[in-house]
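## retry 2 of 3
previous attempt timed out at serialization; input unchanged, resubmitting
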Amino acid sequence: MTHEPVTDEPTPSEKLDQRIAELGDWRGEVLRRVREVVHRAVPDVVEQWKWVKPTNPGVPVWSSHGDLCTGEVYTKAVKLTFMKGASLPDPRGLFTSSLDGKVRRALDVTEGEAIDEEGLAELLRAAAALNAQKKGKG
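## retry succeeded, writing output
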């Protein structure tokens, strides 16, 4: 019988809860809202926490059959980078950065900016479907 090691390390979801709370400003609210949209749009989503470095606390990543998008926090924006964004339809024109990239696309949410939640949900569902298709599950 094998046992999982007991650890006091917070889960990725707990780390995201902590990050939202510690921000305590509009950026935390954006992350909270984005998280809600992600979970509504892609019910089987997995929250991960990646790219922790001494100079960076890490980045939340939402995954379904592979990474969908990140939620990077900067001083003036919350950047949602879609790993395969260049392959996704964007009829609402939500992508605002990395537009010349061959693979990724991102949308930056700035203070006071409304999130097009339905448009974001469409991007997330398309990203999940693309991942599932590439993994042979769709």
